[in-house]
User: What shape does this take?
Amino acid sequence: MVAEGALLWEPADEVVRRARLTRYLEWLGRSGAGYEEVWQWSVDSPEEFWASIWDHFDVIGERGDGPVLSGTMPAAEWFAGSSLNYAENALRHTGGTGVVFVSEDGARQELSRAELREEVARVRAGLVRLGVRRGDRVAAYLPNIPQALIAFLATASLGAIWSAGSPDFGVAGIVDRFRQIEPKVLIAVDGYRYNGKAYDRSAAVNEIATALPSLRATVWIPYLTAAGEGLPPQQAEPAPGHTGEVPHGEVIGWEGLRAESAPLEFERVPFGHPLWILYSSGTTGLPKPIVHGHGGIVLEHLKSLSFHQDLGEGDVFFWYTTTGWMMWNYLVGALLVGATPVLYDGSAAHPSPAVLWRIAASERVTYFGVGAPYIMASLKAGVRPEGLDRLRGVGSTGSPLPPEGFAWVAEALPGVPVGSFSGGTDVCTGFVGATPLHPIRAGIIPCRSLGAKVEAYDPEGRPVVGEVGELVLTRPMPSMPVMFWNDPSGERYRDSYFDVYPGVWRHGDWIRIDEEGGCVIYGRSDSTLNRGGVRMGTSEFYRVVERFDEIADSLVIDTGRLGQEGRLLLYVSLAEGAELTGELTDALCKALRAELSPRHVPDEIRAVPGIPRTLSGKKLEVPVRKILLGTPVEQAANPDAMANPEVLTHFRP
Assistant: This one.
């Protein structure tokens, strides 16, 4: 065990001096101010702060003469009268590398910024030929490949609306998402490779297209076919059988879409005009279609990527993600600050657990991000990253990173700070995170993000410091959703975030905020454990249990209800070759008792073949609790929103 709060890294004077946040503070005339003072100003005077972001980064567009902020949550309006376009700001930088792509089978592609602009212009012209106009939806069933980035930028340039799903999603999960938004065009691959295997998705694409009567066209990218033939995707033609079953609309290949050259133009739209539609996990009920606006995302990603990840021109940014996770949208935001995004399509563990570190080394990455489980898997596998001489930071998100994960990065990559970030799809960014100016302490997220008024609320709705409480935001942020699709009254949006504290965003996480501004996330507040009247976050359990070499993954559930004590059940997925012996059970209970408390000792430990997770890797604590309390498995969770739905049946009471 590593002591929470142990000092692991401090910024050298040179790091502080060259940090982009330092330059911003100098430009602002606040060079002598401490971070907490500047954060307080950013949330107390959001109009001044967000106006300064527009000006500091010289955002392309018209500011207009309306107020920067008017109204309150959930109906706050930003930069009334302004107009801009995300793609115009993302493609403003010239010279150098625009994007790098690496695939699991070793293929690599690099586009210069000029080539990226040319491809976006071609695809934009192709979308116009297909009838796509401002406000139309373009849906994508694509892996993390250059064509996804190109098609997104082309869509945004028109003022049309992008929405993507990864091809590892099942047909029903994709249809549940896309049917809600009625896309005019579907862009899809014929298949993909993962973990050394090929997956043909042509039949799935035909099913999806059939279920979307709004389609005017389906665009096929023969990604799997091209890989088999050793060709770039645009040079391979989709097999006739792949396209013959789409019952409506035109069917063309990627080469046909990008066939004609055209000037690159941008339609400027109001600040809150929809840019893309992301989705909640959809584990219960239909996924919520979350709409973000051009302006809010441009400002938020400029701020976050520049000041919290310290990225700018000349940097190379790699975050392991699929197109179905908000981190893809965050990754491509590197273009806004002049950095180069690295896109990777493949497994994080094939052919070895070190594959992502090797890509980061070979591409000379300056900031490398992953989900927290990958860092812990690297620790357990004894990975020793090499060749990362340009690396200035490691990012972690998706779930709380235990202190041991922090310590492993500090030991494996001396002098490289690890920044744990927490936020969500809802805002497409982090509420809390790190900066180059903050020391790194084990298990502690160094600060609340600039412009994010994060507080911890006790059960009576009062802010607390040094205690665990509900994570809330008491002031609006520009990247909050402009709406949910097909929610004209806003009722679904209000019920999602404002049903507990009127006018205050409740995010659904437990958080502790210390006097110095550091934060610890304890897991979802809707899956909290209550033993003997004491609330406990699940992340504390996982930190202890998953330290054991015999444990590959774990899930803890409290079956108690209001006023009724329940059982505390610990499920473990065992490492290869391990068994849940009496000795292992005793060792787990002893560790939980000694390192946490007697209340943390489970009533029973059960072995299961896997821990249910969403497609973005989050543990499904709430659905499993529902199953244990009597909800049928088929009603507790949507299998198409899960990475491994087959394991759910092992949690029946």
